[in-house]
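Recap quiz, item 2
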Amino acid sequence: VRRCAVVLVHHPVLDGKGATVTTAVTNLDVHDLARSARTYDCSDYFVAHPILAQRELVERIRAHWMEGSSGVRIPDRREAIEILRVVGSLDEAILALGGRQHVEVWATAARERRPSLKFEEARTLARKEGRTLVLVFGTGWGLAHDVIAASDQLLEPVRATVGDYNHLSVRSACAIVLDRLFGAH
Ligand code: SAM
């Protein structure tokens, strides 16, 4: 199985009107995605935010789970948050993984905003040897178009077979995507 990194992006993402914005960090996202990433044996989890104060907030959350009372009380959480690194952008995360040539970037979205890589093929590709897989998750109303356009693939949206309501939280979407790729089925 190839090395896999999860990146949670707070900029550039879309708002409800389709404008490009920067979202605030949600505490819940930070350690919930760490737990999912760790559960599916991802080697890295990056929270990317362009604003220093927000990165400091994430570092405080990390410290809380690493050294704080919670880390002592719930060591499993500490093990999960250990893989978390805070960076200023997706590009910084990619650099930390060896640079754009050394990674394969798969973006995610709730809608098929470009022809998508179907999960069946993605699962096979994810289990092959190859460049580090970078799974990019957004916030707000989804990743900005540039991020999706610059990725190697857009992963097939997680969707139900019925209805057209599709507003999963990034926490739910990340866990489902990781299970589709690396879950024991
Ligand atoms: N409507 C937005 C979109 O099209 O992505 C949903 C935004 S959701 C709050 C934030 C992130 O969760 C998205 O950027 C994407 O990474 C992930 N996400 C949400 N729903 C998803 C789905 N059905 N399939 C795959 N990823 C999803």
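The CA atoms of residues 63 and 71 lie 9 Å apart.
The radius of gyration is 16 Å.
End of item.
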